[in-house]
Amino acid sequence: MSAAEVGAVTANGSLLEVQGLVTRYPVPRGLLGTLRRQEQEHVHAVEGVDFSVGLGEMLALVGESGCGKTTTAQTVMRMVDADAGRILFRGRDISHLTQRQLRPLRREMQIIYQDPYESLDPRYRVRDTVAEPLLIHGIGGKAAERDALVVQALVQAGLEPPELYLDRFPHELSGGQRQRVAIAAAMVLKPKLLLADEPVSMLDVSVRAGILRLLDELRRDGLAIVMITHDLSTAAHFADRIAVMYLGRIVEEGPAKDVVRNPLHPYTKALISVVPKRDPRDSTEPQILKGETPNPIHIPSGCRFHPRCPIAQEECRSIDPELRRPASAKSPEHRAACILA
Amino acid sequence: MDYIVKRTAFAIVTVFVAITLNFVLFRLLPGNAVSGLRCQHCTKQFRESIVKQYGLDKPKLQQYVIYVERLAHGDLGTSIADNRPVWDDIRTPLVNTLPMIVVGTVISIIIGIISGVVAAWRRGTAADSANLWTALAFYAMPTQWIALLVIFYIAIPLGLPASGIESNTLGILSTPSTWAVFSDRVSHLFLPALTLGVGLYGEYSLVVRSSMLETLGEDYVLTARAKGMRNWTIVWKHALRNAMLPLVTLIALSLGSIVAGAIVVEDVFSYPGIGLATIDAISKRDYPVLQGIFLILTMSVIVANYIADLVYFKLDPRVTE
Questions:
Q1: Structural domain tally of chain A?
Q2: If contacts are CB pairs under 8 Å, which of residues 126-145 in chain A contact chain B?
Q3: Chain B positions in Cβ-Cβ contact with residue A102 (cut-off 8 Å)
Q4: What is the chain A residue with the closest CA to B221?
């Protein structure tokens, strides 16, 4: 990492800083509803999320399905428009830039998706898929130059020897190889930030470790990574910091070790209790949460977790706790949104 | 390679089945070409001589062998109505129809793709529903009625020719130039082709729309957007190309209905094509000509499907599997 690059990040040293992000999806009312002037309802996918990530750092965004992890990533990438909040990339608020203004920035922030069977165009050879970002951004003028960059990206993504893969179609590759192609197509632009939306959840367990190690290597080389996952053990193993999301809000955030060893929020505690134990003699009781995740159209009052919380008290119904450092936290960066923590 | 061989073999088998059906179907009808002859003074001997002349006294299997043998030599038989070789009777109508069908299909594909893409891109908006209803309406309209509307609202106000294939006055005073003949033909061809195109486009538009909605929701489209690709480039390079696959099949399959449409369109516009020839042959009970027309139409549908299969092979790398 050069000094110039460090200088380009925000004041507190992070490359990406998200402040008070809110993304809502309108619920279709139908013709009758519109005519009756029914109130427009929204799915509150993301409700005030703050986080930041620096160069060479991996932040894991953990939470169950429907908690807003993917929407957060989509909003940060400006694939979906935020309703409120700021997205600071290199200290510049990109939440209101037009798509045209965003285009040069896209070179520096890339995303890889969950399902490598869908994220590659079936009609494109590996060579074309990986070269496409270069063409979009007009990098590597001559074909030979582009080819060299493509080969370099494939090697970086662990597809060796690259000649073996260049002219293949996605359907001729395994899931893990496809995800590596997707990573190569993202890394060929040499981005500063990589959002990985559940990069291994569609892959066989046997190839997951390989992909995660690859992401880990990229992080060591100075890439900022936001990894979205519902697998807390993956996050604990690879991430520097973990942010736990519940119903569109981050309920606990801190260094990975602290969050896993000393969880403060009852939701995090429940999540950790159900992670399969390495030692079969370990007899700690898994703590199964009661009830379903509430409908994100009607978020519960007060603390959004209180209807399912095993330790909820009366005031939890009315007080919406903010993310702060509780007294029981061992590290200064460890924060939780719970009045009882 | 394997795929091409398989498709070719499949097409050849289909052709044989079509030829056989074409033979059997007309023999299943009660009576034969001779009993269809309406002459009161014909003697028994005369009828028998004609039966012999057409080879109808031979066993059916032998007739079939002779039929196939003649076909192999390009001989479609002889018209009962005018005693000319069938091929001579249907060649000119075929040559007249072909450009009309091609232009009509191209019109329908262009309108269908453009409207389908716009509707999918602007999904849920007024433009989308407007297109949906228009496409459905044209899809549902009988082609002959569209033809009448075209005559009333386009041909008459614009003064475009609405019947025949060339102006009667052309060439009366002097030999017309090639260009004059060409533009005259085109102006006569345009309205029937437009009618055909408008009648067909609805189906294509709906298919393009739904297939585009599918590809636009694919992650590789999202990926392209995240990489900073321009919207219309995404539509062109990723979404539309993958959405074209169902359309290719549909166009090949709908060649049959295109021909059916051509029959009524040609009837309304008195366009001397294969449709009008079919109607003429039916009214004269000219079975050999009908048989010839049917054969050529089935063959062209089979060939179109064969070409579609090969195009598919080009468009979708996964087809080889």
A1: 1
A2: 132-133, 136-137
A3: 228
A4: A119
A111: left (phi over 0), alpha (psi -120 to 50) or beta: beta
By C-alpha distance, the chain A residue nearest B229 is A136
Which domain CATH number covers A279?
A: 3.40.50.300
Residue A250 counted as domain residue: yes
Q: Is residue A29 part of a domain?
A: yes
CATH of the domain at B169: 1.10.3720.10
Q: What is the pTM of this model?
A: 0.78
Classify each residue of A92-101 as buried b or exposed e, where b means 16 or more C-beta atoms within 10 Å of its C-beta.
eebbeeeeee
Instruction: For residue B212, give how far its alpha carbon lies from the nearest alpha carbon of chain A (Å).
Output: 14
Which residues constitute the domain of residue B197?
Answer: 89-285
Given an 8 Å threshold on Cβ–Cβ distance, is A106 in contact with B228? Answer: yes
Q: What is the pLDDT of residues B16-41, one digit of tens each?
A: 888 888 888 777 766 665 665 666 67
Q: Which residue of A has its CA nearest to B223?
A: A119
- For residue A257, what are the domain limits? 3-108+191-336
CA–CA gap between residue B275 and residue B258 (Å, rounded): 11
Q: Does the pLDDT at position B107 exceed 90?
A: yes
Distance of residue A295 Cα from the nearest chain B Cα, in angstroms: 24
Cα separation, A52 vs A34, whole angstroms: 40
CA-to-CA separations, B104 to B173, B261, B268, in angstroms, rounded:
33, 10, 15
Determine the residue among B220, B245, B311 to mutate to test chain A binding: the one whose Cβ has the most chain A Cβ atoms within 10 Å.
Answer: B220
- Identify whether B295 is part of a domain: no
- Domains in chain B, number: 1
Instruction: Specify if A221 maps to a domain.
Output: yes
Query: Could you read off the pLDDT of B202-256 as tens digits, one per residue?
Result: 999 999 999 999 998 888 998 898 888 888 889 988 899 888 888 888 888 888 7
Inform me whether the C-beta atom of residue B73 falls under 8 Å from chain A C-beta atoms: no
Q: pLDDT by residue (tens digit) across B134-152? A: 999 999 999 889 999 999 9
- Map tokens 């359907």 to a residue: A171
